[in-house]
């Protein structure tokens, strides 16, 4: 697990990895308001464990992880702050050296993954026009939830 204040956004960012037993960890990038940054930390820990079970149950060669970008009370999420936070989380994901992949979750979508990808290649669920594909999950690829296929975004596979 790594916790840091984003150098651009100054927002608390958490990347929690529960397991890498089946392969690199994978889980969503959550952007959400919490009363205290420690609530975001607790959420990341709880959800990373749930992703371990979810990936294993789906037969995917991924462990579980989760990223949380914490918005505090009264913080206005402007477009420039959103971009800064997404670049910050991408750098934190990159610091794991390929042992964690992130994708859309509560508060983020495929278009946000395009911004994250500017800091790391370890991201999935990109829109088609940015290299995403409509491939379904297999034991060698990460599969996105059906939400990723709605609208402009479709799922992108990453090799483990």
**Overall mean confidence score, pLDDT:** 86
- Reading off the top of the CATH hierarchy, the class is best stated as Alpha Beta
Morphology: globular
Supply the helix-strand structural class.
alpha/beta
Overall tally of structural domains: 1
Gyration radius (Cα, Å) is 14 Å
Question: Which fold does the CATH topology refer to?
Answer: Rossmann fold
Beta-strand share of residues: 15-25%
Low-confidence stretches: 134-160
Report on the structure:
The chain is α/β, with parallel strands linked by helices and 160 residues long. It has one domain (2-149): Leucine Dehydrogenase, chain A, domain 1 (Rossmann fold, 3-Layer(aba) Sandwich). The protein is 28% helix and 21% strand. The protein has 3 helices and 5 strands. It has helices spanning 37-57, 79-94, 110-116; strands spanning 2-5, 12-17, 25-33, 63-71, 100-104. A 5-stranded mixed β-sheet has the order 1-2-4-3-5, sandwiched between helices. α2 (79-94) packs across α3 (110-116).
